[in-house]
Amino acid sequence: MSGALRIRPLLTATHRYEKTVSTRGRGHGVYIEAPILAYLIETRNGRILFDVGCDYHKIATPELRARYLEPMRPTFDVPEMSQTQRIPEYLQRLGLTVDDIDLVFLSHLHFDHAGGLCDVPGCEVHIHRDEVEAADTGEVSGIFDDEIAERDNWRIQPAAYSPAPGIQAIETPGHTAGHMSLFIELPKGPPVILCGDAADLMENLDDEIAPGYCWQDRETQAVDSIRRLKQLAAQEGAELWPNHDFDFYRTLPAFPGFRE
Predict the structure, then answer these.
(1) SS3 labels along the chain
(2) What is the pLDDT of residues 189-242, one digit of tens each?
(3) Could you tell me if 192 and 7 are in contact, meaning their C-beta atoms sit under 8 angstroms apart?
(4) What does DSSP say about strands 31-43 and 239-241: parallel, antiparallel, or unpaired?
(5) CATH code at 148?
(6) Which range of residues forms the domain containing residue 38?
(7) How many structural domains is the chain composed of?
């Protein structure tokens, strides 16, 4: 019996940045448009959100934009995000509310993956222990203190585990200290592996090239994680879904469509 009933991709924002952010050592001076994705996973045991996108307030409020996001230029432009791309808006279109979310699974703590926690208050949040410990050093860029202020209430995971039957969290460190990806069995189609930022683009997978940013320059660890994902996909006949690849995203069902 499969673990999930369906997966809905959610386009939470778009982001223009220098390609070398996604492909280590490649793409200096070349800028790409990338989707910022979350996924709503419906299971027989409840609903899981994989990542939650950005904090809309930091994008829409000039003072917050200037404080948090403008300093990232010119490597990163400020993400473009509309009110309709917030998680509660997507849920409302499905006749749901935040109360219908049983678990938020964070691949890692960068602002474009964890910032939207402010829109899902009260939800149970799962994150890898190494990710929180690295964030607590204060040495990780791209993490904002206010977005992880509730971490003492999160379910800290020390290793790979199963958040629901037929769904397996996979340790894929390198891009960040405690990055996790998610393997999902489906009732009709092949299994899906949500890579998170272990692989931003299909290029990362095809060429086995690390993301541009690696925690403490652990490029070898990041490439090992990519190879582990590819090996698992080959063993299980699974599809690998990179996280910031527009060409790939356009092959997925548009909301409210889903894969099952």
Answers:
(1) CCCEEEEEEEEEEEEEEEHHHCCCCCCCCCEEEEEEEEEEEEECCEEEEECCCCCHHHHHCHHHHHHHHHHHCCCECCCECCHHHCHHHHHHHCCCCHHHCCEEECCCCCHHHHHHHHHCCCCCEEEEHHHHHHHHCCCCCCCCHHHHCCHHHCEEECCCCCCECCEEEEECCCCCCCCEEEEECCCCCCCEEECHHHCCCHHHHHHCCCCCCCHHHCHHHHHHHHHHHHHHHHHHCCEEECCCCHHHHCCCCCCCCCEC
(2) 999 999 999 999 999 999 999 999 999 999 999 999 999 999 999 999 999 999
(3) yes
(4) unpaired
(5) 3.60.15.10
(6) 4-249
(7) 1
pTM over 0.70: yes
Distance, CA of 102 to CA of 35 (rounded, Å): 25
pLDDT, tens only, 230-243:
999 999 999 999 99
pLDDT digits (tens, 9 = 90+) for 122-181: 999 999 999 999 999 999 999 999 999 999 999 999 999 999 999 999 999 999 999 999
Residues 147 and 73: their CA atoms lie apart, in Å, by 21
CA 76 to each of CA 38, 65, 107, 138: distance values in angstroms, whole numbers, following the listed order: 20, 13, 20, 21
pLDDT at 1 over 60: no
Residue 255 placed within a domain: no
